Structure formats: structure tokens, C-alpha cells
Amino acid sequence: MAAKKAPEKSNVSKDELLKYYREMLLIRRFEEKAGQLYGMGLIGGFCHLYIGQEAVVVGLEACTKDGDKRITSYRDHGHMLACGMAANGVMAELTGRAGGYSKGKGGSMHMFSKERHFYGGHGIVAAQVPLGAGLAFSDWYKGNDNVTFAYFGDGAANQGQVYEAYNMAELWGLPVVFVIENNQYAMGTSMKRATKSVTLYGRGTAYGIPGEQVDGMDVLAVKAAGEKAVEHCRSGQGPYILEMMTYRYRGHSMSDPAKYRTREEVEKIKQEKDCIEHVRDLLTQGGLSSEDELKAIDKEIKEIVNASAEFAKESPEPDLSELWTDIYA
Amino acid sequence: MATEVLMPALSPTMEEGTLAKWLVKEGDKVKSGQILAEIETDKATMEFEAVDEGTVGRLLVAEGTANVKVNTPIAVMIEDGEGADAAPAAAPVVAAAAAPSAAPAAASAAAPVAVVSKASPDWAPGTPMKTMTVREALREAMAEEMRANPNVFLMGEEVGEYQGAYKISQGLLDEFGPKRVIDTPITEIGFTGIAVGAAWGGLNPIVEFMTFNFAMQAIDHIINSAAKTNYMSGGQVPCPIVFRGANGAAARVGAQHSQDYAAWYAAIPGLRVVMPYSASDAKGLLKQAIRDPNPVVFLENEILYGQTFDVPDLPDFTIPFGKARVWREGTDVTIVSFGIGMKYALEAADLLAKDGISAEVIDLRTLRPIDYDTVLASVQKTNRCVTVEEGFPVGSIGDHMASTIMQRAFDYLDAPVVTCTGKDVPMPYAANLEKHALVTTAEVVAAVKSVCYR
Ligand SMILES: Cc1ncc(C[n+]2csc(CCOP(=O)(O)OP(=O)(O)O)c2C)c(N)n1
Ligand SMILES: [Mg+2]
Question: Most buried among A10, A90, A246, B435, using CB within 10 Å?
Fold first, then answer.
């Protein structure tokens, strides 16, 4: 088994580390539970788990302020939990029940919360990129200093509309952070089989957008890069690109046999780079937290997740009249 | 406490699978995340992981067992320290006798033998037949045409190394190599434009859209570039290309992944539009599409991919465009459908027969051109017509058929034509709502009864 990197010393406070630990763990346990409910037939259709990538969204959410917006793809459960949407409402949407964020009408891929400024949950690869730039346009137009985070994958990064959005975002100086979650695969296609570009953030150069590559498995690195990007956007300097190097542990969706990569490759990353283990090590080996303290958090998270599953099972199916509502505003 | 491990659902459409292999045995300690078994669905072999740690108390289903229904207990896990006798004595599931491959996956999919069209047979009587799934038929059609014509190539997302998102192109990369089975990045409008250009340049591309929902990214090239250029060039620049992939609703995949584009594409002059139901039509019409000198939109259906039908065992079997198939002859009403709509039409005809109503069921198969004559001849006989499709009601194929029948057979009609369609709403995710959003067999039966004044 590969040796783990010794945790570097961090100047980050215990409270902050515990917050990351808790938030990342919530996503992981939630997703494991979702996978389980899928296997039981309680969740249907497509269900894309975020396991492995938790540090990206947790680190960036730590850079947001009230009124900042976010938008992402179908791999959206983590983003919703991290921006403060309730586990119950998300899980009940996964089971297609009335208690879900979209009353059961959206499903795993399509959830929204106006209150938390979460604009979905999009099933068409890369559609959320110009949409995110448009959300930023609304803040730019109104003259406030809010920022939009537009998350998309390495596969999505090859869609043409991304570059149309880049061009206009820079042209007009829109406050949008383009977050490329480079988990290295688009379904079964590794990034190397989809492009000769060495980096994805580098493509911003052609449009004049600054950016950088970030260790997306390290929540502290994500947070630091996020601060820089957000400062750039808030101060009216236009968009910024963050290419988060990350990894998904599970298949693309529940029905992906994942034959395009080896188990060893997955195991190696789990052993050496896991974002939750990383923070756990910082807490324990730095002498900040005891095992017991973390175990108590684990238990608390497990209870939240179990409660959400119960809620999602017990929440009733939507009333049949809902078929005909919400088609028009 | 002992817990049962249930047969998991590993895809949106999986109802049963084969327990291919156990990777643990009774008494083994397992960790959460450890692979317990390999399970075969119709699409792929998947690894099945343990959710919690524990010890394997009992394996309830023998490896190699086929047709294990989702949610059947397949093993019992016990916690450390418990004896195996803590495992409830569940009746072991005996390996089901291997079902003959001819057995239809769903009874509804297989047409009763008597319904083979007499009016316009696609093959001569006595032709040897073989059974195959729609998926295999599509694959065979592409492989045969690729063998016959070196200018035919396949392009799309995950068609090569992944063997196709829905396994239609399985094996083609091995046989034809990466120059002819081309994996693209996720760039629909880009690769569609490239394929159209390649067709202008004298090649015969087959473009696979993972589903037609994603072809909306590329619809400009399908319509503005592929469909119109022969006309705009005064006949100098034809575009021999096939756009194919899954169309319409799968199961529980929500509003952006469940749309039926039949009526959209059927509206466009310059395109040919095909929407097969059976495997023989899938095969014969896809081969025809690849040979056609025009752009063909070929609309498949994920739910039909795994269904089994008889296909003539001929070295070169094609079906011409613009020829409907009469699946079932009848005297009281004509039911016109296509694609997966045929499932509801045929089910309804069976039910109606029990009520003494004899329905003639016609599968249009191609939506551009449409075989009006077969439909009109039938309506002149039955004097009543109901159309069935999954798409939205406004501007549907049914609307078009109703207006055509009104204009050309008005005097023959004893009742207005009734159209059965999907509901006028985006597809909801919730299971109960989804059922109501789709057209149902019960609605078809009710529509037929209404036109028969019964
Ligand atoms: C326009 C479009 N094309 C194809 C698909 C099918 N599809 C869904 S996800 C996906 C892969 C996307 O990969 P990536 O952008 O890297 O995101 P990840 O899944 O890794 O988070 C594909 C091809 C789609 N949903 N939309
Ligand atoms: Mg990816």
C-alpha cells in the first residue's frame, strides 16, 4: 500500500478545519446513502455521485458571501449540501417525493434553491457555463459585488459554448468564477483522449482570462485559490478560471461499469489523496482533535444522513395535480 | 443483527439481471466498499459493492443464476461475532432454468405470431428467421454496411473504447479500428458539423448521439447544413449521412433527458425520418438509411433496445422508406403508431379484442416520407382512427395524420380522429407523475372506445 504523505503543518484554526471535515463528511455519507437507496430502487434514473470531489465545493463555499450564486451540472448533490440546502429536501428529491426541493419533479439532476442562490442541477453538458455567466451578468448589471460560481467538468470544457461564454464574460467583465472540476474522466473518456491541451485553465489565455490549476483534493489549497479568484471578480476585474484537479471514486453514474480505469488507479488516489483523510490527519496528527471528538462528528453526520433517508422514504409522492402545475410562472 | 443484501438496480431500466459471479464466500469478512459480486445487466457487467462491513452469513443465490429480479435477497450479512445461524433461513433461490433467448423480455413487446403483416410483407414466406434484440439488429446493420462500404464510418461520444453508452456499437472498434469508429469529445455541434462536411466530401458518416436530447446542441447542422444544402446547391451537394441514437423517454431521467423529437424532425423537408419499433425494422431500415443519399434522422428508443423480435436471416435485408407495416388486421378501427407507441397500440389491440373490438394496427416506421396510402386504405375500411405516440400533443404526428385523413377520407369517417400523445408537460421525475405524463395503454383503449361509441 502506498505511503501517505505526512501532513504538512497548517496555520488554519481548529474550528475551520472541523467545519471542512464536517461538511465534506456530510457529502460523502449522503452520497453513500444515495447509492444505497438507488440499489434498493428508491431512486431511479440517473444518479451521479460526488464522492472524492468534496474538497472542491467545500473549499469554494468557504469563499462565498451572502447573495453569491452557484450553478453546476447533474453531479450536484454536493454543491447543494455545501451551500446550505437541507439534506432532507435533497434526499427527498432523489426519491421523487413531495418533500424534495423540486416537489419531486426535478430529480437527482435538477434541483434549485432560490433562497440559497443555487440555480441547478443541469443535464445538458456545459449548458450551465453560459447560464452561470448570465447569472453574473445580472449582478454586474445591478452593480452589486456578488460573484457567481459556474462549475463544470473536464468533458464539458470541450463544448463550444464554454468559449463563447468565456469571450463575452471577459469582454464585459462579468463577475464569474469558472470552476472546472477536472476529475480526469468524462464518462469513459479520459481527458487525454479528448484533447491535446495540457491544461484546461490555460485555454482562458486566448480570451484574456486569468486562471490557475489547483490541487482539488486539498480543501485548504482550494480555499486559498478561491479567495484569490473571488477577490478578482468582486473588485470588478472580470472572470477567473480555477481548474480543480480532482477525482471521482465511483462510476460516472450508477450504471457505469467503469472499465476504462483500473481499480489500482482508484485505490491509489483514495489512499494518498483523499480529501477527508487529509483534514482528519491535520486535526489528529496536529494534536488539534482527539479521535473521540471526530467520532462524535461522524456519528452526528450519520444521524443527519439517516434522518434524510427516512424523510425521503416517508415523504409522500407528489399529488397527481402537480403534473400540471409550474409549467408557466 | 443479520441484514439481507438485495439484488441491486444498476441502471435506470434494469428490472432483473444475472448474478454472474460471487467474489466472496460464506464466512468471509468484508469491508464496506469491497466487491461482493459481479452482476450482468443487459448493458454491462457491473461490480456490486458491500455497503457496510460484516461477515457473509449466507449466499442465497447461486452464481450463474439468470433473471434475478431487482430487490431479491441474494445474501445475508451478519455482524462480527454473530454465528451464521443468525442468518434467517431464507429459501435459497434455485437457479432458474435458462430461458431460451427467444423468450421475449416483456410479453408486451412480442407480437403474437398471427400479426405479421399480410398486406405488405417485408420478406418472402418461408424466409429463415432468427431472434435478436433491437440493440443487436442495429449493431448488425452498421457492421454489415461498414463491411460493404469503406466510406461508412461511425462517430460519436463513447462509441469506441467504451463500446457505446447503450452498447449499440459493441465490438465495432475491434472490427473496424479507430479510424472508422471514432470517439469524439463532448462537442455535439462541432462533430456534427464535421460529419456533415465529411458527407459533402463523399463519405457516409453515421453520427451517434448518446441521446437525441443532446442533438439539440447540434440541431442547427442537422437542419440548416445537412437538410437544406442539396436544395440550396441546386442538387450539386447531397448529404448522405445518418444521425442516430436514443430518442424519447427512458425511465425516470427527468425533463431534459426524455424528449421525443419525432414530430420536430418530421417537419423538415430535406430530411428523412425513421422511427422503428421492431428489431427487423431497426435492421432493415438502418441499412437502408446508411445507403440513402440523403440525411436520415434515425430515432431509436432505450426501452426497446433490449427487446427481442424475429428478424429475417438474410445476407442483405433492407426495407424501403415510406412503407408502413400492418401489424394486425382489423375491421372496427385503425390504430396508427410508430416507435415505442406501437407497444401501447398492440397492447390496446389485444385488450380491445377481448371486448369484441377488432383493431387494425399500423406502424408508420418512417415519418418522412409517410405511407399515407396504407393508412387511408385502412381508414376507408374501418371508418375510425386513433393515433398513438409518446411526443407532445401540439403539432404531433397524430395531428398531421388527423388532418390528412380529414382532407382525404372525410366521407369515410364515422367519428373524429382521436390522438393519444404524451401530456403537454415537461417530463416529471417522480415515478407516479411520470406514469401519467406518458401515454398509456388504458388511454388508447379509452380513445378507441370513444371513436367506436362504446
Ligand atoms: C450535451 C450533452 N452531451 C452528452 C451528454 C451525456 N453525458 C452526460 S455526463 C457526460 C460526461 C461529462 O463529463 P464531465 O464534463 O467531465 O463531468 P463529470 O461527469 O466528470 O462530472 C456525458 C457525455 C449530456 N448530458 N449532454
Ligand atoms: Mg469529468
Answer: A246
